[in-house]
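Why do we bother with holo predictions? Because pocket geometry can differ from the apo form. Keep that in mind while you read this record for fe (ii) ion.
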Amino acid sequence: MSALYAIRAGDPGQRREVTAAMPRLAELAPGLREKAVTAWVSAWLSSTHSTLEQMPYSLQAPDYRLLDHTNEVADAGILLADYAYARWSVALDQDILLAALLLHDIDKALLYTRVGTDVAPDPSRAGLPHGVLGAMLLKEAGLPDQVVALVGTHTTTSPVRNDGPEAWVLHYADLFACDHAFRLATGTVPFFQRV
Ligand SMILES: [Fe+2]
Ligand SMILES: [Fe+2]
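The structure, written out:
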């Protein structure tokens, strides 16, 4: 059996916890929502974290919660998408965008573990890059190829970038929310201040 993760539907209580922790999951079409919930339950139950709240966002912002970052990226992405449509008539696939916003950092649940008050890379994930491990999990959980590609290429260090409007919105929503967490973290320079 792979040590990376296992796809598990979880029990009804675990599925309710995931849905309550990320309220915008309720805005996805039902079929997509169930797959997204299964993906999050799988990441959670395959991780070292006993609760969703324990999942850290970043090695560079150990006190910030992955749940907060995820919800903030989802909120910011919907705001940006609404503006792009109203101002520039940019049509986006709302379901694909929202799924990607809610799932883009799912593999951080697996890549990081807590060691006391610190956050450290989890050695059991075979050194896979952020984004790639998430894309693998999402493909196996049955998410659409567009969501898999958006998540697999969303990082600032990805050698391949998706060129659709959903990738554009995900990128800026992610960096906007990320820099909020980085501004709060001691000793971490936010992206917008890097030279
Ligand atoms: Fe990310
Ligand atoms: Fe992110």
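The longest strand covers residues 61-65.
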